[in-house]
Amino acid sequence: MIQADSDSSRRVAYFYNRLIGKFHYGKEHPMKPKRIAMAHSLIVNFGLYRSLDVYLIREAQLEELKKFHDPEYVTYLSQYMSENKVNFVKEYCSTNNDGVIPENLLEEYKLITKWSQNKSSKNLNTEYKVGDSADNPTFQGLFSYCQFSAGASIDCAHTILTGQADIAINWSGGLHHAKKKEAAGFCYINDIVLCILELLRIYVRVLYVDIDCHHGDGVEEAFYLTNRVMTLSFHQYGDDFFPGTGQLNSVGLGVGRYYAVNVPLKPGISDGPYLELFKKVTSRVMETFRPDCVVIQCGADSLSLDRLGALNLSIKGHGQCITYMKQFGVPLILLGGGGYTIQNVSRCWAYETGICLGQNIDEPIPANDIYYQNYKGDYHLHFPIQENVENRNKSEDLNKIVSQVYDHLKNLEN
Ligand code: TV1
Ligand code: CA
Ligand code: ZN
């Protein structure tokens, strides 16, 4: 039974486009856009869509991406897609039409051929870290994928700013590692930075909270020098865990000093200690920073049994972070992010969509779900917690983190 809790219900804008799930980083690559389609399918099958304002994700235009990214980098990314498109058109022509270009594709074909010939050699991959490592491959439609992810996060900001929603959700966003002119950690365009920049056109202060198991380095770096955005990341840290930044003493610079907050964690942290830490830190941050809006990167790789992360949260524990942030009554934007055991990612984000609506879903996966087979072995929404995982964070380590963070935040009180 769905428990409707009308007191905590909010007007929720949910952004989706069924094309998102079609993009593919490559067969062995852990990042699977399909998980967005799986989450959506659960959201539909649990009946949550009936209470959501569902918006179609549009592609952000080049000019919008250039609000944060280097124009040459954006052009480079767009050209790359065009090059793929050339191959696609060529392949299409040779397989279907014996090399004859159909009239309706001719103009497009000419344009993209010209682009791919004009491409200067300095623009080839290594400078922008695109296609030069297994982490950030090029793939069919890469640029469109970036445009969708960013278009939705920018529009999340707009629904909040115009008062059309109290909470806005984009599970295809949250690509927190992308830099001004560099791809990193499966991220090419930083939809989060673009979203926050849009919010800053009206709001004075924006809080960014990142519960992905990786450090939110791209967002932290973008706002490292400003006091209008506070970035707060909880992440696994140490033993060369990617990206290697996010120490407790990275606090921001200049007027941005103490407006970056980092909570580095060792593997194995479970719901109890994580939530205690999360609440202690976020409550003090809310009290001292008093943001006009909170953007949450809800990376689901902090869940137990993730393919890349080694933290030990349950879906309920992960969701309690959202519940806790919701009770401050400040507008929220929820974005996706990491999450590599995909049947748990879709469970988690469907559950958190329910939380936004004040609907606590807890029933098995509906048998008519088109991705039903993906849940084979356990059709419950919640997976059992791992009892045999050691929490390598001693309570004295965690207490030390809290008191350090409090000391940093004391510098902001006046
Ligand atoms: C292709 C095929 C790529 C298999 C990448 C895990 C793969 C990884 C792959 C992988 C993998 C990383 C590094 C490598 C530093 C680099 C969306 C020397 C089984 C937000 C990004 C993690 C996390 C990048 C993104 C990391 C996010 N881990 N198999 N790659 N090097 N890269 O460690 O924060 O979740 O692992
Ligand atoms: Ca994080
Ligand atoms: Zn991650």
Would you mind describing this structure in some detail?
By secondary structure, the protein is of the alpha/beta class. It has a single domain, classed as Histone deacetylase domain (Arginase, Chain A, 3-Layer(aba) Sandwich). It is 38% helix and 11% strand. The protein has helices spanning 34-45, 62-65, 71-97, 103-118, 142-161, 191-199, 217-222, 271-289, 315-326, 342-357, 395-410, and strands at residues 3-4, 12-16, 53-56, 167-170, 206-210, 229-236, 260-265, 293-297, 332-335, 359-360. The strands form 2 sheets. Strands 3-2-4-9-8-5-6-7 form an 8-stranded parallel beta sheet, with helices on both faces. Strand 8 (293-297), helix 9 and strand 9 form a beta-alpha-beta unit. Helix 3 (71-97) packs across helix 4 (103-118). The longest helix has 27 residues, at 71-97. The structure holds ligand TV1, calcium ion (CA) and zinc ion. Zinc ion binds next to loops. The site of zinc ion has 7 residues, from loops.
